[in-house]
Amino acid sequence: MIIPKWSLRMHHRCPGRSAGVGFGFAIILAIFTGEASAQWSRVYDQFYLPASHNWQFRHNYPAADRMFNAFDYGHAILYETLYNYPDAPPSRLEEKEYDFITRELLVHPPNIPLEEGAIEIAYAKLAPEAKAMFDWAHLLHRQIYDVWADESIALAQKDARVAELLRYYKTRRELAFSSTPKSMDIMDGHPYSGEFRQKYPKFNGLIWAYHWLQIGLYEPLLLGKTPDERQTGVLASVGRFWQMLETPPEKMPRLMPMTAAVAPLFATRYPEAGIIFDNLHMMHDVVSDVLTSSKIPRKEKRKELLRVAELFRDRTSYATTVQEWRDMAEMMGVHNMGGTASGGIFTALPEGTVPRGMSMAGMNHANMPGMQPGRDTTAAMQHANMPGMQQRPAARDSMAGMQHANMPGMRPPPRTAADSMAGMQHAGTDMERMMAMHERMIADPVIRERMMTDPVLQRMMSEMMTGMSAGGSTANQAALSFVVQLLSDPAVQARIKTDPELQKLWADPDVQRLLEKARREKTPAPHKH
User: Fold this and answer.
1) 466, 243 in Cβ contact below 8 A?
2) How far is residue 498's CA from residue 382's CA, in Å, rounded to a whole number?
3) What angle separates helix 155-170 from helix 271-292, to the nearest 10 degrees?
4) Which residue intervals of 343-454 are DSSP H helices?
5) More reliable by pLDDT, 81 or 26
6) Which pLDDT belongs to residue 83?
7) I want to staple 82 with a disulfide (CB 3.0 to 4.6 A). Which of 118, 175, 291, 491 is the partner?
8) How far apart are CA 491 and CA 447, in angstroms?
9) 66-75, pLDDT tens digit by residue?
């Protein structure tokens, strides 16, 4: 029997603001099912902290913002499927749902956020507390994007805004993830740990790619010195997300992306937020394992989910230090997590060196092979003694210190997409001019937006980045294919005519000769996603 739910609208006056704002929507859910003992769940929704920066990310980066609406569906359908259809073949998620998400939903994401409760109906009734924890943390994600997307906020004021958001987030003690770092044992140390990623490697890789982008988007927002640099950096991060989906799960992260590795600038500036987001992402994995595992009877799943949720909220369970959190990210290797978010558009994805989805249980720094107690943990790590691991520098320097000569197709990654183009060594002046035009095109906000709303162009960009990793003629052909496709778009053609610099580059005889050659050779159209 399900007791009807009811709600209570609450109003308050936010301190320091002149207008009273209705911010709360209270829901009290009573859960009585044949599978769980009668329990009351007191959960209510709470809205954004009222602020001028709200929804600025959606306004200034609409294509990237819409991706998160698709991500919401991916998490919701995953939990609903795992709970409702425990005996379904893996193909239900690995093929049917995965194909729908990657070929349709992500290509044409919803314009507005989804109400996940309308998709994960059974799961929302099973563990509304866990769902509410995820929703509250996702709201923090979006509001921090908003602060950094708002061009009207002075750089010196952004830190104060983020601190205010963190204080607001922590007012919900019954929902807030702990800002104390947790060891990997909280994710990989349970009897059922890893069952989801073993049974569903593609969907697990998709979830980890989601999480890579969620934390990775902060880096270009912080790194960019101008609005155009930030726009291009966000585009680059979205492009690298698409690159991860090529030939799944081969190019997907092999280990859970950690903020200190993927977004080191953000993690250094806002370590508390980075820790909260890593705890959030670890709990996503644990919930997937609980719902997948046959070791937990169906009637016990709610109890285990509530136990797990409490572990992630408290400050003592599986606790480590901030330094150990950073060291763990370094030890796992950013190359196993999809790479840093500042690698540039045209660098290849780094190659992983560990088995996909390997367990990190027991790898607390005090007990790790090769560790010497009493010394700085970063300096003392003997990565060569750890199976599958290669020695890496500190997370903040990890990309700069890579031995690229030993990594197939890798070049030293620049800090921005513009630097990436400037640093590429193409054979011949003609190709350099072509790439200069391409750089100018993707820096243009109108053309960039056109790229991010066209599935064919998205696919072309992904294929181009894959080609770039091979270098030589493959790279040249990939770039030419993409430019030709862009120039065939009427909106792009019109934009070129209004931009003197673009028009000059386009009219260059060498560029025209290359374009004409590519058209004559009938550059193959991209295959459908």
Assistant:
1) yes
2) 57
3) 40
4) 377-380, 417-423, 429-443, 445-452
5) 81
6) 97
7) 291
8) 8
9) 999 999 999 9
The one-letter code for the residue type at 206 is L
Which two three-digit tokens encode residue 98? 């995965």
Nearest CA to 78 out of 165, 249, 208, 253 is that of 208
Assigned token pair, 485: 């496709």
For residue 478, pLDDT beyond 90? no
Q: Find tokens 């959960």 and name the residue.
A: 43
- Phi and psi at residue 453, to the nearest 5°: -110, 5
β-partners of residue 6 are: 28
Contacts of 437 (CB under 8 A, 6+ apart): 483, 502, 505, 506, 508, 511
Q: CB under 8 Å to 372, separation ≥6 — which residues?
A: 380
CA–CA distance, 518 with 352 (Å, rounded to integer): 35
Q: What is the pLDDT of residue 419?
A: 39
CA dist 465 → 64, 121, 432, 462 (Å)? 18, 39, 17, 5
Which token pair is 413?
A: 């990654």
From the CB of residue 446, how many other CB atoms can be counted at a distance below 10 Å?
Answer: 14
Residue 490, C-beta contacts closer than 8 angstroms, at least 6 positions apart: none
Average pLDDT over residues 175-187: 97
Q: What is the pLDDT of residues 226-268, one digit of tens each?
A: 999 999 899 899 989 999 998 999 999 999 999 999 999 999 9
Q: Is-cis flag, bond preceding 249, omega within 30?
A: yes
More confident residue, 316 or 423: 316
Sign for the CA dihedral angle at 159, 160, 163, 168 comes to negative
Of 326-340, 380-394, 452-466, the least confident: 380-394
What is the length of the chain? 529
- DSSP run (H or E) holding 5: strand 2-13
Give Cβ neighbours of residue 443 (< 8 Å, ≥ 6 apart): 228, 231, 232, 418
DSSP conformation class of 249: T
Which residues are CB-contacts of 497 (< 8 A; sequence separation ≥ 6)? 503
How many CB atoms lie under 10 A from the CB of residue 255? 23
Digit-coded pLDDT (tens) for 482-504: 777 777 777 787 888 787 877 88
CB atoms within 10 A of CB 16: 7
Taking the C-alpha atoms of residue 499 and residue 503, their distance in angstroms, rounded to an integer, is 6
406 pLDDT exceeds 70? no
- What pLDDT, on a 0 to 100 scale, did the predictor assign at position 343? 61
For 10, phi then psi, to 5°, come to: -115, 145
At 173, list the tokens: 């003690």
Sheet harboring 20-31: ordered strands across? 2-13, 20-31, 39-46
For residues 507 and 394, which has the higher predicted lDDT (pLDDT)? 507
